[in-house]
Amino acid sequence: MEELIKCCKEQGLRITKGLKAIMNALDEAKLPLSLQELEVNPQIAEICDRATVFRTLQRLEGIGLLRRLNFSHSGAKFSLNTGDAHKEYLICRLCGEVKELKMSCPVHQLEEKLSEENGYSAMTHELTFYGLCRKCN
Amino acid sequence: MEELIKCCKEQGLRITKGLKAIMNALDEAKLPLSLQELEVNPQIAEICDRATVFRTLQRLEGIGLLRRLNFSHSGAKFSLNTGDAHKEYLICRLCGEVKELKMSCPVHQLEEKLSEENGYSAMTHELTFYGLCRKCN
DNA sequence: TCATAAATGCGATATAGTTGCATTAAGAAA
DNA sequence: TTTCTTAATGCAACTATATCGCATTTATGA
């Protein structure tokens, strides 16, 4: 957390209450949060509004501290980019339940190959599994 | 194509001009299309409107003939589910260029394992790579 | 050809994402 | 500490996307 704040400073961001509250919420949540989920979080709602949350997320994504995830049938969700290990998720197509998977990513080493073959740089990837959870099945 | 129409019939869908036009467009496009892209396609626009395209996509997805894809910074896109081999894409984070990758999916065999471990059924997954293309870099 | 229910068109509405502008406040400089 | 500059904010408006209700049309089985 200290680490993250420091990183924001280095990148020229001002350390405001909103920024801290948002980063805290993202840090405490064990799962990615959407703009709306952040917006209604009591700790955050008290301090700042939707537009601020939106722009703060933009800034954090801009400096690479935040990862934007795109799950089926839900808007974008965001999670802090601690370390550079990305995460895999399992999503229920019906109720939207989000589970984080514990696995070593099986496609990481492909990035370099794809980067060369296609002339792309700054590679990242998303690997997401979908299914029907026990309740929804 | 014949195959797909047959499948629609078996699933109880009525074979309308709209359905055929939409499936054709998706079939001819080498890449996934968004609702808007379909809506403005001349072949389709002539026959039916946005709500119909929307609901047709819903139906096709419902019977498993259509796959909904979620790429960063763009709305949902759709592609026909021919065979059950899914596809991998490489997306430019800036201009949004979409490339289909030719690779044998390295995580397919993980689905069964995850299904058991988490009590999920009807598993699918999405593997998408992002980067900056030559032009945008 | 007729009857029935699925599919459609239209317009309204909901939801997510985004912006302009006047105001506030973080942090560097004095 | 006070002052100054400019990033950050709040508010409200706005755009784009997604979705729905209902009256009408049309595909298909009898």
Report on the architecture of this protein.
2 copies of one chain form a homodimer. By secondary structure, chain A is an alpha+beta fold. Chain A has 2 domains: 1-83, Arc Repressor Mutant, subunit A (Orthogonal Bundle), CATH 1.10.10; 85-137, 2-Layer Sandwich (Dna Ligase, domain 1), CATH 3.30.1490.190. Helices cover 39% and strands 24% of the residues of chain A. Chain A has a 3-stranded antiparallel beta sheet. In chain A, strands 5-4-6 form a 3-stranded mixed beta sheet, covered by helices on one side. The model of chain A has no long low-confidence stretch (mean pLDDT 87). The interface between A and B is large, with 36 and 36 residues. Strand 6 (121-132) of chain A pairs antiparallel with strand 6 (121-132) of chain B, so a sheet runs across the interface. Chain A binds a DNA duplex (30 and 30 nucleotides) through helix 5.
Which CATH C-level class of the largest domain in chain A is it?
A: Mainly Alpha
What value does the Rg of chain A take, in angstroms? Answer: 16 Å
Q: Give the low-confidence spans of chain A.
A: none
User: Strand-and-helix sequence of chain A, N→C?
Assistant: HHEHHHEEEEHE
Number of strands of chain A: 6
Question: Cα distance, first to last residue of chain A?
Answer: 39 Å
Oligomer: homodimer
Going across the biggest sheet of chain A, name each strand in turn. Answer: 1-3-2
Helix content of chain A: 25-40%
Under CATH, the homologous superfamily of the largest domain in chain A reads Winged helix-like DNA-binding domain superfamily/Winged helix DNA-binding domain
3D shape of chain A: globular
CATH topology (level 3) name of the largest domain in chain A: Arc Repressor Mutant, subunit A
Q: What is the overall pLDDT average of chain A?
A: 87
**Count of DSSP-assigned helices of chain A:** 6
Q: Largest interface, by Cβ-Cβ below 8 angstroms: which chains and how many residues each?
A: A-B, 36 and 36 residues
Q: What class would the helix/strand composition of chain A place it in?
A: alpha+beta
> What's the CATH architecture name of the largest domain in chain A?
Orthogonal Bundle
